[in-house]
Fold:
Amino acid sequence: MIRLDVWLTLPTGESIKAGTLVVADSDTARGGRLQGQFRYTPEYLKHPEAFPLDPLNLPLSAETFDANRPRAGVHGVFEDSLPDDWGRKLMIRHYKLSRGEQSVPDLLRLLGKKGLGALSYEEKGSPGPETTSVSSQHLQELALLVEKFELEPAAAADDELSLLFQAGSSPGGARPKALVEDENASYLAKFASARDQMDVVSLEAAAMEVGRRAGIDTAETRLKQLGTMRKCLLVKRFDINAAGGRNHLVSMQTLLKADDYYNASYRDLAEVIRHISSQPVHDLQRLYRQMVFNTMIGNTDDHLKNFLMLHDDTGWRLSPAFDLIPNIGFDREHVLLKCQC
Structure:
């Protein structure tokens, strides 16, 4: 059994224990199904700043909530803390995880305080792993390590990849990324892939800039040249505020209880916004503008993980737009326009 305390860092910077997550050992007789539960702490329920971690599926209540997600074993809001393809590969390599050690609860235990968003995870009675930030001065070195890890993962020694493990275990998505910071802010650094057939980094930088000029509320970005051959896109993190506190994030996939990224439409996203946004009219206008923009630039990979609801001092609102990029050479049918019924 895995038992984890779930901590929430508020926008003020205060960290409070929000609840406890318990996942039973996998049921090998039923294909490895996982059964997990979550319960808020009484202290959190009484806290004046308390809010539901998932406003549609985990309301503020003293009851015990069953996850009812046999593959993951935890509610979607907790799996949102984990990276997807790229970051999970790094975690698996870093911790030398066998296939049986790669479950979502196991990965959350290892993730600790290093996830995006406002949640962190600690084993009961443990202070949790310490986090050490990586300076943006190491971007060129990280770009070289990304290339080596992609092309020759077996040839790279663990100590050689230590900086990449430190900076790159948290971001989601399939493309290479890392978390860095400078004296002004924290960033998600997005690098070129060794498999790119074009300058995808510059293409995304241009699409984000065009989005801003088109009136899209986008995450702040900056294209940075790394020597003569490489570059990266720095995306300012909107889960960290100016005071150093955190803004909680929940994906639309979690809010809709969707089985995968691709099983919904923009209409479904609009319904979520109507139900939970503290400024629904404004957010619905933003969603519509982003839908039109995605269509115009050919950003067909507009899936549910690329839309987040953010909780800050004002309540719930649609997060700034990110991952705006034309999918040149890929499926031209938009994910969220496939089903409008």
In short: Residues 280-297 form the longest helix (18 residues). The chain has three domains: 2-123, 136-236, 248-337. The domain at 248-337 is CATH 1.10.1070.20 (Phosphatidylinositol 3-kinase Catalytic Subunit; Chain A, Domain 5).
